[in-house]
Design brief:
By secondary structure, the protein is of the alpha/beta class. It contains 10 helices and 10 strands. Keywords: Hydrolase.
């Protein structure tokens, strides 16, 4: 894979945007966040889009590149780390739990809705990969959400199981049981890799997975290539596609036509079940929307969608 621009470099392309370190509380623990705003302050509360990463991802892995673009267009952007990840509180570290992360999304929305500089009637969600499914679940149960961007989304855990193959399923079951045993014995979680080369044992082993994750990772990143075995069963049973029919706001689906991580067809089926869906299919695999020319195309389309639904028309 060719060298990629780091998130810091990408953020420099938006010099009129400033970033503020903020935090909010979720279930009694602090979630670290960045709030992006245009430098030119106005007295009018701004719309806001809330962003968080996918499976084990942390905010510095290209999310700031998206947030800076949204902020430059006049939409504030809150980028946060889940509890147990990155700069946020929570022990043990790397504890990926879908219900816990959904609580963090609820807390993030509640936080921006209480800020005097944010308009609580114009709050959107942006998710990618696993969080592309989490934002669908959150919007289905929270009518405050005004718009959603769901990028290369994880929408149906059951359809993802066959890609593991019999050997992979067996190793995943062993990892789950070892971690459950560790829980019962009050020991540290049993971890296995998030990404690895094809044929290895990891949550993602597609040809582009290992290179894609490392390409997103800037120097000094807090990301760690490990995830607890207990998430295996939970992820397999997580199916946000079942609740998309309840979403009352417009949803932008950014789908990669060669996605072998979360599967193109699964995302298209979820979009077809969504009442107000805007579907864009892009050439490439699961990690391509984060980089290079495709990033420019995807972020431009997502910004246009958010502007149309969150900002009043000129005049």
């Amino acid at each position: 894979m060719n060298p990629r621009p780091t998130p810091v470099e990408a953020g420099r392309s938006c010099p009129d945007v400033r970033r503020e370190d903020v935090s909010f509380t979720s279930r009694g623990q602090r979630c670290a966040a960045w709030l992006y705003r245009r430098r030119a302050e106005t007295l009018t509360p701004a719309p806001c889009v809330v962003l968080a990463h996918g499976w084990s991802g942390v905010r510095e892995q290209r999310l700031d590149a998206f947030a800076a673009r949204f902020a430059a267009a006049g939409i504030a952007a809150l980028v946060f780390d889940y509890r147990h990840f990155g700069a946020s509180e929570g022990e043990p570290r790397q504890l990926l739990d879908i219900d816990s992360q959904l609580d963090d999304w609820d807390s993030a929305v509640a936080y921006v809705c209480t800020r005097p500089d944010i308009d609580p009637g114009r709050v959107a969600l942006w998710g990618t990969s696993l969080s592309g499914g989490l934002v669908l679940t959150t919007a289905a149960r929270d009518r405050r959400v005004a718009a959603v961007v769901s990028q290369v989304p994880y929408v149906d855990g059951l359809t993802n199981l066959p890609r593991l193959g019999p050997a992979g399923l067996g190793r995943m079951a062993v990892a789950y049981l070892r971690d459950r045993y560790a829980q019962l014995r009050h020991r540290p979680p049993h971890m296995f890799p998030v990404v690895g080369p094809p044929g290895s044992f990891a949550a993602m082993t597609s040809p582009d997975a290992e290179a894609g994750y490392h390409a997103m990772d800037p120097p000094g990143s807090t990301w760690r290539n490990e995830t607890p075995g207990r998430v295996a069963l939970q992820a397999a049973l997580y199916r946000p596609t079942r609740t998309v029919a309840k979403i009352a706001c417009p949803v932008f689906f950014a789908i990669a036509d060669h996605d072998v991580v979360t599967f193109t067809r699964s995302a298209q089926k979820a979009a077809a079940r969504t009442p107000d869906a805007e579907v864009h299919v892009y050439p490439g695999g699961h990690f391509d929307p984060y980089f290079d020319a495709l990033f420019e195309r995807v972020v431009a389309d997502e910004t246009d969608f958010l502007v149309r639904h969150l900002l009043p028309p000129a005049g």
